[in-house]
Amino acid sequence: MKPYATLLLFVSSLLSYSQDTTEILRQLDTCQTNTAIKNWAVQNSRAHLWEHPEFSHFVLATALSRVNPKQDSLMYSKIIGEHAILHAIRMETDSNLYYIDKALAHTPHKDSTNIGYLYRNKGVAYNQKDQFNRAIEEQYNALRWLPYTDSVYRPLTYLELGKLLYKIDNNSLSISYCEKAIPYFEKMEDYHDLCACYNTIGLAMINSSPIDPRCIQMEHMSRRVAKIAGDTMNINNNNINLGIAHLQLGNLDSSAYYLHKAENTGYYFKHDRFVEQRLVIWANLLGLYLKKEDYEKAVYYADLVYPVAKENEFNFILEHVTASMVDLYAELGDMTRALNYSTEYATLVKENILMSNTELFNSMEREIQERIYRKELEIKEREASLQNIKLNNERNLLYTGVGILIILLLVMFQLYKLVVKQRKEASENAMYLNELNESKNRLFSIIGHDLRGPIGNSLFLLKEIPQRGDSLTPGSLTIHENIQQGLTEVHGLLENLLLWSRDQAKDLKVRKSDVDIHAIAMQCYNLMSVLESVRHMKLSMKVDPHLFWRLDAHAYSTILRNLISNALKYAPQNTEVNCTIYVEQDFLVTEICDRGKGIPDHLLKELNHKSETGNEKLGGMGLKLVQILVHQHGGTLSFEPLENRFCIVFKIPR
């Protein structure tokens, strides 16, 4: 019946495997992307790793067949890398290395993080094969590929390097790399790896020559972190390390406490992969009881540790064991055995020193190369950074320049629009002003021509009434004089208005000829005599009867009439107005003096600036016209306030 039962179990396992395969293929068909295929393969392969390792590899192989390496080499390499991880978990080192190399061959160079991760795993595999030299080389390769900003694999690589460098007695460098990793693990609260860092630092301090007393502190820190994480394995490792540290520091009772505590847990005696830890415990208990001179227990532990260490070729442990056994059997008086172990010890020392020195030299050489490589990378990164800064500055300057140019163009465009608008408005205003000026000039011309004739005729008729001998009553005579005065002023105003309109129209030009100055003065005197009698003032004329001068007679008459009229109107009543005309150094000088206060300051300012205000009085207009006519003759006009007198003097050149 037994063969039948075996056959039945085999057939049922085949059917179960076939059913699982069908289900796997069905699930795989639901994955739409390569990333989904990879994630599904990782999940299912690790789920069956220990019970059905062949099935796990079948899952990965099936997933790998669904990914085209030419189209997605990254996912393809990650699935191969998962093959390597499965072999690493099962301690199948050669298969692990095979798949790591295969994954590296398919990983694109741009994925530097994944390449660094694979090199780190490769270093761990060589460490398991006790090929420390090659393991250190692969860990340095990992550091070269991993970005400086990586906070996951880079600290793990620092920790692996720290462990490896401790194994080849490069203790200072081991401590340095573990200290680099500590801040990362503290930040991520990775207590397992943080514990390993403190533990490795403690071991390196124990291994230093002389021993660094701080090793006890480091191991206790590692122990506290391990308790927080509930990491039984690291707690037991701390017990071993504390036992070794106290042994080397001479604290024999403390050493015995921790070593026996590690031995009694039984943790290292359940799995064959902890052979090295068992040997370390026994070797140190051998040295402990040798120092305590308890030779019976020392022989007991010597018999435990020596054959196992020799069988498994743990030469560094065997070196320390044989050294203790030489002293042990020498104390027991068995010189033959002591001599045999002494010969073996010398051979082991020679081999280990040669291997340690070679590996130490190689590790130091690689460390120097790594530092040079890092410096070169830093220089390249600094140069690239400076180049980027330069390019950014140039780009910013360009953008700033373009922005300023655009702003200037917009401003210029707005200014151009404003100028065009202003020009248009100015043109329209100029046209409007020209129209107003033409209308004004036409109005003034109409007033001057159409009103001057009737008023002049009326004035002439009023002057004829007394000459005809018609008698007038005193009242009528007063009315007659007032009418004659008013018409005289209006006639003068119209004369000024006509000349003003001609000046505004740029049509006012003097027409010079030889003029009888005496005749013009007398004509003005006769015209102003009406104002003289009304204002109860006296007008005196002093002029040479034979004086002739080249000028515009009408303009000169207007000048005299305006100045004398103003003097008669504004000077105090019952005073005298003097008009003197004479020649001085080729100038015809005309002085008109009165007893008045003179011309108001605001009119003088207007005359000096050749401008008028909108609220201009008639006298102001007359003075402006006088100034224009004098300048047309090339003459000068001046105002001379004297004591109790005010004189206006104008000079006209010959």
TrEMBL record:
The chain crosses the membrane at residues 397-416. One of its GO terms (molecular function) is phosphorelay sensor kinase activity. Residues 446-654 form the Histidine kinase domain. It comes from the Bacteria. Keywords: Kinase, Membrane, Phosphoprotein, Transferase, Transmembrane, Transmembrane helix. This is HAMP domain-containing histidine kinase. It comes from Phaeocystidibacter marisrubri.
